[in-house]
Amino acid sequence: MAFEPVRVACLGMGWWSDVLADAMLRSDRLRIVACHSRSEGKRAAFAAKYGCRAVDSYEAMLADDRIEAIVNTTPNNVHLETTRAAAQARKHVFLDKPIANTMADARAITQACRAAGVVLALGYQRRRESHFRWIHQEIDSGAFGKVVNAEANISRDRLGKIDLTSWRYTAEGMPGGVMLQIGIHYADVLAYLLGPVQAVCGQFAQLVLPGDNPDVASLLLEHESGALSTLNASYASASEYYLLNVYGKDATAYYDLHGGLRVLRRGREGVEPVPCAKNDTVVEELEEFAAAVRGQGRPEMAGDAATASLAVIRAGIRSAREGRRVEVAELLTGDGKEG
Residue 100 needs a FRET pair 20 to 30 A away by CA distance; which of 81, 122, 182, 293 works? Predict the structure, then answer.
């Protein structure tokens, strides 16, 4: 259903802000009208690139009635401050994952947007990839039978590419290191395919990269369904790589970055390739957000879902620190302790 493009202002001028802005240019559902960064040079460059107004302050941006929504790519530790201010100004918010660094902030962000009656959507584009949508549909149809196990790996090469002045690579800015930064994407996909996570065992290590944050991490996830899954994340790999295999009683799906998607079905010989057209996942999530702003549906990943996603990673951090299996409910009940 067609509607007037949502007038968006971009907050935070890092590399991901350009990824989202480029996606908005590929859509007729959103229009970038303004931007703000504390860096005058960054906001001027962004404004020139995307044909929008550079605004001198966030307060001025929020006071502008022409702006309907904020696309927020600020550091995790200011998500609460910036999103709460937007909600109070009646601006809808698209926020890049994770929702926050702490469970307390995640709950406060969700409540602030709910109380103000504004849309909150989180950027979890990986679950939208066509191969994972296909697996999800097959599981729902019963073609996999009982799903019992899955394994995932999300790895990138950051050797020589780490900027230790960036919040993305510090323990303060990104607690849990690689697992919170990129591992959370596949933790979300595993929950999307196998159902909610009940408990986590985690291990984190710093093996190759400089700084104060883990560059390798592993989680063992117990899903409420009884299925088990494993997730490995690394910044210390020789190259970028993604793998996610799902094992069911009646079928198994194999996905990896280079081989694409294949399926093996009980009673049939050989692995069958599954053709999946590459879809524009970032445009899809932004257009879903725009539709929700116009009263057409709700975001797939809103505040509560993103808080539950964060809880899985925080449970893994707590597990590694305390050397025990951690129930996700410990984080969701708000006991005052972070992972």
Answer: 293
Q: What is the CATH number of the domain that holds 28?
A: 3.40.50.720
pTM, to two decimals: 0.97
Judge whether 71 and 100 are in contact, CB under 8 Å. Answer: no
DSSP state of 324: S
Beta-bridge mates of residue 254: 245, 262
- Distance in angstroms (rounded) separating the CA atoms of residues 174 and 100: 9
In a domain, residue 53? The reply is: yes
**Residue where the block lists tokens 């600020």:** 74
Distance CA 194, CA 130 (A): 17
- Parent domain of 272: 130-277
Of 277, 293, 310, which residue constitutes the final position of a domain?
277
The per-residue pLDDT for range 242-297, each reduced to its tens digit, is 999 999 999 999 999 999 999 999 999 899 999 999 999 999 999 999 999 999 99
Half-sphere exposure (Cβ direction) of 103: Cα atoms closer than 13 Å: 21
Structural domain total, the chain = 2
Q: Are 292 and 119 in contact (CB under 8 A)?
A: yes
In a domain, 324, yes or no: no
**For 89-151, where are the alpha helices, taking DSSP H only?**
103-116, 130-141
Question: In terms of DSSP bridges, do strands 197-205 and 326-327 run parallel, antiparallel, or are they unpaired?
Answer: antiparallel
Give burial (CB, 10 Å; 0-12/13-18/19+) of 198: middle
Count how many residues are written for the chain: 339
